[in-house]
Write a structure and sequence with these properties.
The chain is mainly alpha-helical. The N and C termini lie far apart (about 65 Å).
Length: about 140
C-alpha cells in the first residue's frame, strides 16, 4: 500500500477523508471542551481527559446507524447530537463523577460513553442535589 501523499488517499486502509474528519473533530473538541485547561487542572488525570476526547471523536466519526448507550441501542444521530452539546462544564462534571466513582466498573468504555451521553441531561440535577445537600444536610 502506498503512503499518504504518494498518489493513494489511504493509509493502512483508512481514507484521507476519514483522517481529515477525525482531525477536524479533534481540533473542534479540543477547543470547545477546553482540553488544555482540563489537563492543567491538577485534580484531573491527563490520560482520562485524553480518553474522553478520543471517545467524543470516535462517536462523531462512527458510521454505524446505532450506538449502544446504557445497554440500549440509540440512533447514532441522537448520540452525536448529545455529544455536540458538551462543553467545559460538562467535562468537569464527568471528570468529577468519574473521580468520585467507587463501585466496580466492568466495562469502562461503556461507562464513559454513558457519562458523555448523559452529561447534558443530568448536570443541572447533580449540582442542584449537591447544593441541597450542602444547605440542608444529609
Amino acid at each position: 500500500m502506498e503512503q499518504y501523499g504518494t498518489g493513494n488517499d489511504e493509509i493502512d486502509g483508512i481514507s484521507h477523508d476519514s483522517l481529515q474528519t477525525r482531525k477536524e473533530y479533534q481540533d473542534y473538541f479540543r477547543e470547545k471542551l477546553e482540553i488544555e485547561s482540563l489537563k492543567q487542572n491538577r485534580q484531573f488525570e491527563t490520560q482520562t481527559v485524553d480518553e474522553l476526547l478520543d471517545m467524543c471523536v470516535d462517536i462523531m466519526c462512527s458510521t454505524s446507524p446505532v450506538i449502544r448507550v446504557n445497554r440500549e441501542d440509540k440512533p447514532a444521530a441522537l448520540v452525536k447530537s448529545q455529544i455536540m452539546k458538551l462543553d467545559y462544564s460538562h467535562m468537569e462534571y464527568i471528570l468529577n463523577c468519574f473521580r468520585d466513582q467507587t463501585s466496580d466498573i466492568r466495562n469502562i468504555r461503556a461507562y464513559m460513553l454513558t457519562m458523555l451521553y448523559n452529561a447534558p441531561l443530568t448536570i443541572d440535577h447533580y449540582y442542584r442535589a449537591q447544593v441541597n445537600h450542602d444547605l440542608y444536610g444529609t
